[in-house]
Amino acid sequence: MRTLVADLHIHTCLSPCASLRMSPRAIVAAARACGLDLIAVTDHNTAGMVEEVARAGRAAGLRILPGMELETREEVHLLAYFDDAATCRDFAAEIYALLPDRPNDPRSFGDQVVVDADETIVYVEPKLLLSALRLSLEEAAARIAALGGLAVPAHVDRSPYGLVTQLGFVPKGLRFPLVEVDGASRPAECGPGAVLWSSDAHTPEEIGSRVTAFRMNGATIDEIRRAALGLDGRSAAVRRRPRREGEAG
To answer: What are the φ/ψ torsions at residue 126 (nearest 5 degrees)?
Structure first.
């Protein structure tokens, strides 16, 4: 086993709330500059940039975890992680069909673009990605699990869109071994388990501002789950931002 320093909540230029500077090249460069071992691409209700960032990551020796940030019917944000880009892409197609047919207004919400390795725009997403899905929290969590993924409620203690702040409770029958928090501790409403610190980066400068150190045997969904549960010597612990290249100690 080894310790992997991870930032598992990063948006790209495809999320309307993110900077157009969040290209694959810029994301990977920023992650490497602050010593990250593992990052996750988690755009709003889409996985359209996952594979391009994964290619850039492989070239730089950086592990990329395919993911998305869903907005459920209850307006709760839920991170969905998968072991491979193909499964994430197929799940994203299901999610896209559940988005309201509402066009994006870039002047109000921001641009939604897919770019290639050279930072050339190859596609402009017409449907507004910042929308609640026709899918409940329970349904989303069940579908993610059925595909072998890991569901992690995002910024549960933040208002709006946090599970605890939005609902005030975790629906009966749902168990989340890992929850993302803005604060320092796991809310009691979420039950036992570990906390995830991540940047929710929308600009390159934010990447790595909050990280989690996983002690585990590889960057897989099963290993992350086992680390969250503290099984067999594995662990997940929040950590201060790693020092960027060139920064004073």
So the answer is: -80, -25
Q: Is 89 exposed, middle or buried (0-12, 13-18, 19+ CB in 10 A)?
A: middle
pTM of the entire predicted model:
0.95
Calculate helix-pair angle for 50-60, 85-97, nearest 10 degrees: 160
pLDDT at residue 248 tops 80: no
* Residue 225: closest CA among 121, 81, 101, 34: 81
Architecture of domain 2-239: Alpha-Beta Barrel (3.20)
Q: Measured on CA atoms in the order 128, 132, 137, 143, is the torsion positive or negative?
A: negative
Q: Which residue has the tokens 């501002």?
A: 209
pLDDT tens figures, 137-163: 999 999 999 999 999 999 999 999 999
Residue 126 pLDDT more than 60?
Answer: yes
Show the CA angle centred on residue 10, arms to residues 54 and 135, nearest 5°: 100
List pLDDT tens digits, range 174-223.
999 999 999 989 999 999 999 999 999 999 999 999 999 999 999 999 99
**Domain boundaries defined on the chain:** 2-239
Q: How far apart are CA 143 and CA 147, in angstroms?
A: 6
* Neighbouring-strand partners of residue 151: 80
